[in-house]
Amino acid sequence: MAGLILRRFTALAVLLTVAWAGSACAFDTETATGVNFGEYGKQAYAYLQYIDQNLQDRDSDGGKDTVRAQEWIIRELETAGYADAQIEKQDVPFQTDSGKKRTTQNIIATLPGQTEQQIIVGAHYDAGDEGNGTGDNGSGVALLLETACRLVREQPLPETLIFVFFGAEEYDLDGSAAYARSMTKREVADTLFMINLDSLICGDFCYLYGGVADFENRRVDELDAFRRVYAIGVRLGLSLHVIPWTFDHPAPGFREPDYPSPSAGDWSDHVAFAERGIQYVYFEASNWEIPGPDRQYDGDSETADAGKFMHTRRDTLTKLEELFPGRALYHLRVFSLLLNAVLTDHDI
What we know:
Blueprint: H1 2-24, H2 42-54, H3 66-80, E1 87-95, E2 101-111, E3 118-124, H4 134-151, E4 160-166, H5 174-182, H6 185-190, E5 191-197, E6 205-210, E7 212-214, E8 219-221, H7 224-236, H8 271-275, E9 280-286, H9 317-323, H10 327-344
Parallel strand pairs: 3-4, 3-5, 5-9
Antiparallel strand pairs: 1-2, 2-4, 6-9, 7-8
């Protein structure tokens, strides 16, 4: 009897340990209170699930799901109401890591507005060869597609909207570079700003970036678009973060910040637009208050509790939901509500 009791106690202890361990590995997500998100972000989450389950291999260099991803994006746009003349495929030449020359495509959907002034919103649909690319950048594609499909039914809008699904971001940002190079001087002049959607769900906090750092004069310029978008976020009651490190307040151990707030580095699709003098606002989820793998305060670790997802085998919706239940949907809802308000705001 004593042996039986001991075995039962041991089994119970094991079960309790497993249950505790499972709950201990589920971490919280910062949420805003009192915000009515309505339906925003729900369709984006459904798109994200589809990408995670069906379009996992989106490497621009021969990924088996790359063409299927293009076809799916176009099909969803057409189903939502975009005419053939509103959807364009743009060839993007790029070079692989082994030096081979390849071609992929950008997918461009145009929604005419009341004026020729335009806002460009972009997200890269390609992914690296680790994980499913769900965070980087299935999340950006899901939000871009939800927004493009919603707004085609809500005309007329103040400005013309250009939605661009970039290829070959993982190859030196070649998709966005090709698009920015193709813009005429008139198109550049008519562009109010560009919004870049990249890696929206895994990081601890919802960030906005913008502006061009001037290290010589210790300041950040070209901030009009960022300030307008951030102000809309404040008005909506959203919990939005900016990089905490400034010229007067650098990260611990640094004499000056590598990326002075609120600017970003040259690692995503906003870069080519900034080089053409177009202001940008960049949406991302990360955590800049912790050191990265190389001890830099650069947002690379993404989460304080679970480390990095981007470009790892952990970049799947299953793993994210296991560690951070509900985070993907919540972040998509935050960014969806903000993006819709920005694109439909007649005072911007």
